[in-house]
Amino acid sequence: KTITGQSLSGSTDQPCAMISGEKANAAGQSAANSSLCVPGSLDPAKVRGKIVVCTRGSNGRVAKGEVVKDAGGVGMVLCNAAASGDDVSADPHIIPAAHCSYSQCIDIFNYLQSDPSPMGAIKTRDAELGVKPSPVMAAFSSRGPNTITPQILKPDIIAPGVNVIAAYSQEVSPTGLASDSRRVAYMVESGTSMSCPHVAGIAGLLRAKYPKWNPNMVYSAIMTTANRGGNDGVGIRDETGSAATPFSYGSGHVNPVRALDPGLVYDTTTHDYLNFICSLRPTDTQGLLPVSLPLPLDILWTLLIRVFHGTDSNPFQCSKGANRPEDLNYPSISVPCLPSSGSFTVKRRVRNVGGGAASYTVSITQPAGVTVIVDPSTVSFDGKNPDEEKHFKVTFQVYDPVKAANYVFGGIEWSDGKHHVWSPIVATTKCG
User: Fold this and answer.
1) pLDDT value at position 320?
2) 23-49 burial string, b = 16+ CB within 10 Å, else e?
3) DSSP alpha helix (H) spans, 71-173
4) In this protein, which residues make up the domain named Subtilisin-like protease fibronectin type-III (predicted)?
């Protein structure tokens, strides 16, 4: 049987005997330690000349290969535990190795237990394009909800951040291990440090086409045009293979081509942000901010003046009436603390950047247990004023408090037949 894993290492020269780390424990070492291939846990007499199957966790992925090599092993299969699911990485292991998913490793362990003399070989193969399903959420990707301000959905967006080819310093080895003398000009890297440049590049592309756009229009275009499905026709999955939610992917996976022609944008102004600050009325930051609050708004304004320049008052005067964080003109909608009876309404406005006259009609993906109504359901632009904006309201009414007690997900999409402007919705009756 052939199982496909991931690695940047070479091949074993020939089929070799295999052993699980659990059964290769050294004297005085527990099977739990040796199954993880932590330093000193493997018995060289049991490992020498064999491919060792190690479980992910405790020490680093490439460090496990070093432990196997030091014990005389010739290769390693790195197996995910259940928590890591299908999240695998192409690492530059110092011995032939393959990182395999949890579901694949069930088969591997079954083989090791059923065959008294298990054999295996690790063989390299070319990278594949168009792998399905794709994209899939990485296990290390941060998840919502937003614990500081739950009225703002986080994350905003996802972008390619796993196994990305990137320039690499030749001052250090590709593994970072002291025993690794290799030097490379390029590496395969994973993490936020890989996804951020993709988004920054798309933002630069948008600014090149629309030099007068402000940052809020740029991120609105990126968010509202993102993909919510995979290349297999199914919604984006998490690392376990289950359906992901906006708490995993926000508005979706970036689509730079669609972002270049978003149709509508949510333009969040300086006054919007200042009223948002007014609405928070912070009383206890517990060290989350670099200053102690509460602060008088004039002092807060002084701290933020370099960012919020160009307003017509200094210090900024909070608008009279109720300012609510849910009303920030953001491209997504998050409503915690929904009333179990009655209704709750948030406000939004959109600007036509599609050029010319246009009429957009809304479609609604209803969250479980909640009825969502958008008023008006159609917005029309005459195309004469490039700064023309249309206001609308989104009203929530809970009809099943049991379902709505947990976070539920939906969305609204404005379309003129050509453009599709999506905003995810997250809602719950829970507060705090």
Assistant:
1) 67
2) ebbbeeeeeebbbbbbeebbbeebbee
3) 102-114
4) 327-426
Return the ∠ at Cα 98 (arms to 94 and 103), rounded to 5°. 150
Give the CA-trace dihedral at 197, 203, 204, 206, to 10 degrees.
150
Indicate the domain borders of the chain: 16-120, 164-259, 270-284+291-427
pLDDT, mean over the chain: 91
Structure tokens at 146: 């937003």
Name the CA radius of gyration of the chain, rounded: 26
| Rounded (10°) CA dihedral 166, 167, 172, 173 | 50
CB 86 within 8 A of CB 241: yes
The CATH number given to 270-284+291-427 is 2.60.40.2310
Q: For 204, phi and psi rounded to 5 degrees?
A: -65, -40
| Ramachandran quadrant class, 109 (left: phi over 0; alpha: psi -120 to 50; beta: rest) | alpha
Nearest one of 158, 227, 218 to 194, comparing CA atoms: 158
d(CA 167, CA 294): 45
DSSP string, 291-328: S-S---HHHHHHHHTTTS-S-SSSSPPPPSS---GGGS
CATH number of 16-120: 3.50.30.30
Residue type, 17: A
- Say what angle helices 192-209 and 215-224 make with each other, to 10 degrees: 110
344, pLDDT greater than 80: yes
DSSP lists the bridge partners of residue 229 as: 235
Tokens of 175: 């593994």
| 166-192 pLDDT tens trace | 999 999 999 999 999 999 999 999 998
- Distance (Å, rounded) from C-alpha 394 to C-alpha 266? 15
Expressed in percent and rounded to 5, the helix, strand and coil fractions of the chain are 25, 25, 55
Strand 333-335, strand 358-365: pairing: unpaired
268: Cβ contacts below 8 Å, ≥ 6 apart = 216, 220, 328, 329, 330
